[in-house]
Design a protein that fits this description.
7 helices; DNA Polymerase III, Chain A, domain 2; 38% strand; nine-stranded antiparallel β-sheet; elongated; Beta sliding clamp; DNA_polIII_beta_C; eight-stranded antiparallel β-sheet; DNA binding; 3 domains; DNA replication; DNA-directed DNA polymerase; alpha+beta
Length: 372
């Protein structure tokens, strides 16, 4: 059921091709599992934009073959049945599913007509720790914009840096999140570059299929697709088209600026408190840094005002900047409470830049002071 629920997320709820609303189960002979290896049992789904192959353990097979399992019906059977096992028998477009105390007869699609879904067949690839890839997704995907007319903003851009590391960047034009970390290059894979923009929806799926016991993940570019494979699953996704912003120009390298060290927990709490009185029409918060404290002030005509003070290690000239608290909260939610980060500020008109020692950076554009 766990594997089926993961795979069924790819199958569309509506489609001009009804067969896509089912998950394909392919089986070999024998029993699958770590203690009794046999030919694999694999669940497969696609919407023609993203596809997944997910290995399933603990399947006894008498006859190799394939069967189409309708997502809504078979998913309900798995959730509602109290039977510990199911026996699936299929012949043509008729499928019988038997439990110890239940029997279901289904009309199913012809498995031979299901679109082919590629396996990960490349020796030339990139290797990255699964934990790193999951962290990259979590720390960048929130900054993307699926509503924008700029199609490329609906995904995260992946590229290799000059030192051979992996960089992930997400932006919606008002804020930008960047995460980098080490990767290993095997052979001569197709480069990660300007066109490697992965849809947010596909990244959510990749994050879901990667688990704590997946140590290494392999990535490869195949024409206009990205393939990501772990120990149990392979996800293939079409890349987004369009021009991604020149993010290095957005991520400023400043010399004359003020750098303030902050701890996530207390700062996060202060931002949430100050945001209580904001509204959609008046959502900005004034952040005033100076004289050993940070003062956060918010107001909304129809709600009221807030003032929250937080002691900080900065005694320089006051700096006031107005920021959208939602953007700061999105960033802070990705970090542990005890994590320290550096906030780089110039004035009320320049972007605020937050950096963490582990390669994570975040840029937020300020709001106009007369936001009301």
């Amino acid at each position: 059921m766990q594997a089926f629920q993961t795979v069924q997320a790819v199958a569309p709820s509506r489609s001009p091709k009804p067969i896509l609303q089912s998950v394909k189960l392919e089986v070999g002979t024998g029993r699958t599992g770590e203690d009794s290896p046999g030919a694999p049992a694999t669940l497969i789904a696609t919407d023609l934009e993203v596809a997944i192959r997910h290995a399933v353990e603990g399947v006894d097979t008498e006859t190799p073959g394939a069967v189409m399992l309708p997502v809504s019906r078979f998913g309900s059977m798995l959730r509602e049945s109290s039977d510990p096992t199911f026996r699936i028998e299929t012949e043509g477009q008729k499928t019988v599913i038997r439990g110890e105390r239940s029997t279901f007869h289904l009309t199913s699609e012809n498995a031979a007509e299901f679109p082919p879904v590629a396996t990960f067949d490349g020796e030339a690839c990139y290797k990255a720790p699964a934990r790193l890839l999951k962290e990259m997704i979590r720390r960048t995907i929130f900054a993307t914009d699926n509503e924008s007319s700029r199609y490329a903003l609906g995904g995260v851009k992946f590229e290799a840096d000059d030192a051979g590391g992996l960089i992930a960047v997400g932006t919606d034009g008002r804020r930008l999140a960047r995460m980098q970390g080490p990767i290993e290059v095997v052979g001569e894979p197709s480069p990660l570059g300007e066109s490697t923009i992965v849809p947010s929806r596909s990244l959510q799926l990749i994050d879901r299929v990667l688990s704590a016991d997946d140590e290494i993940v392999r990535l490869a570019i195949r024409a206009s697709e990205l393939q990501v494979t772990s120990r149990r699953a392979t996800v293939s996704t079409r890349l987004l088209e369009g021009r991604f912003p020149k993010w290095r120009d957005v991520f400023p390298q400043r010399i004359e600026s003020v750098k303030i060290e902050l701890t996530v927990g207390p700062f996060f709490s202060a931002v949430r408190q100050a945001a209580i009185v904001t509204s959609d029409e008046s959502r900005g918060i004034d952040f005033t840094f100076g004289e050993g404290s940070l003062v956060l002030a918010g107001s909304a005509a129809e709600v009221g005002e807030s003032r929250v003070e937080l002691p900080i290690a900065y005694d320089g000239a006051p700096i006031v900047i107005t920021l959208d608290p939602r953007f700061m909260i999105d960033f802070l939610k990705t970090l542990d409470a005890e994590t320290s980060f550096t906030l780089d500020l110039v004035d009320s008109d320049a972007a605020a830049v937050a950096t963490v020692a582990d390669g994570y950076g975040y840029v937020v554009m300020p709001l106009a002071r007369d936001r009301s």
